[in-house]
Amino acid sequence: MKTIGIICEYNPFHHGHAQQIRWVKEKFPESAVVCIMSGRFVQRGEPAVYAPQVRTKAALLGGADLVLELPVTVSLQSAEGFAKGAVANLQRLGVESLCFGAETGEKEGLLRTAEILLMPELKEALRPYLDRGDSFPAARAKAAGDLGADPEILRKPNDILGVEYCKAILQLGSVMEPIPIQRPGDYHDPVARRENPSATSLRGRIFGGESLTEFVPQKADALYAEAVPHSLRYGERAILARLWSMEEADFAQIPYGSEGLWRRFWKASRKYNTLEGILEATKSKRYTRSRLNRMAMCAFLGLTEKELKEDAPYVRVLGFNALGRQVLRKMPKEFVVNSGKKMEHPWQAVECRCDRLYGLFASEPENPEESVCVVAI
Fold first, then answer.
1. Tell me: the pLDDT tens digits for 219-254?
2. How far apart, in whole angstroms, are the C-alpha atoms of residue 86 and residue 234?
């Protein structure tokens, strides 16, 4: 049986995600789809809109066979760290191929761009663009273009992640096969499109009290109707309480605070009484808003640079169907654990702390939780 991995957040799961899984099943009928999904916090540096068990069940009902949790210290990394951590986990689990959506949808171009990003010449090519104040993503696209890449690939969000997946496969010497499929539509489109809505547009509808029925599978829609939404804005006071209680030395230890960015963040936190005000005062042309969001979230969760760089000792199982159970039995038992299993391990203390804090972002009061129930269908 062929195992095909999907690195995902399903924030929330929608028609476009279901189409991808259907495509995999049709193209590889003897395959099992293994999803490794961000848990309670996502790569944008925000809480996931719905709890992991809700998004897991939506994925399983939408055709996934096994859903595993991406460690929080991978979920809250840059695109490069997110991709490398996720690919490394799938490789350790023995997953043979990786399917992902990309605007380009063409493997050779993505792999060529990944190879250029790994060239030692890139560092020198970056320098003039960074020196003139370009953000790192913009500078990298221009520098890669100078070295022969198609710079447009590094300006499109799904292509960027696709390149990072390919780069991670090359760096790790993995035999995992990249399988890109073209993803139509705009990743950041604020207006929902029926067949390929952006997750951004759907989150806007959720917080605006609008229906998702037209844009998500029927079974997922029923799940969302009963689910409690989570948002950065609901937990703003909790984040502010954390930031206002931190000392200057604490800010100096925050991940993503290099090149004096932590100092700007510290000074802004002493001047403004909203998270938006703090982040707006901290931002500059050189740094993306997602980086600032991740920095604030890491500060709130108490995550250190050291913890972000450590390899997770295991992944947690979030859910499976009958086929997924078969796949799970063949995976290394020392690296896959039940999400509710209690262990005397320092890593679990980190995860449990982050799990408990997630409830502070709920639209209505929630009890703190340290694990999620495994979903079986």
1. 999 999 999 999 999 999 999 999 999 999 999 999
2. 29
- List the structure tokens of 294: 């991740």
Q: Contact at 8 Å (CB) between 315 and 71?
A: yes
Sequence-separated contacts (24+) of 206-210 with Cβ below 8 Å? 206/12, 206/49, 207/231
Report the amino acid identity of residue 241.
Answer: A
Give the span between the Cα atoms of 268 and 258, in whole angstroms. 16
Rounded to 5°, angle at Cα 340 from 344 and 329 = 100
Confidence band for 157, pLDDT divided at 50, 70 and 90: confident
69 by DSSP, 3-state: which?
A: strand
Q: How far is CA 375 from CA 54, 229, 331, in A?
A: 9, 19, 18
Q: Chain-centre distance of CA 198, in angstroms?
A: 15
Q: What is the 3-state secondary structure (H, E, C) of 4-50?
A: EEEEECCCCCCHHHHHHHHHHHHHCCCEEEEEEEECCEECCCEECCC
**338 or 271: which carries more pLDDT confidence?**
271
Q: Report pLDDT digits (tens) over 322-375.
A: 999 999 999 998 898 876 667 667 788 888 899 999 999 999 988 888 777 788
Give the Cα separation of 79 and 180 in Å (integer): 17
CA dist 31 and 279 (Å) reads 44
pLDDT in tens, 23-42: 999 999 999 999 999 999 99
If we measure between CA atoms, which residue out of 170, 153, 19 comes closest to residue 83?
170
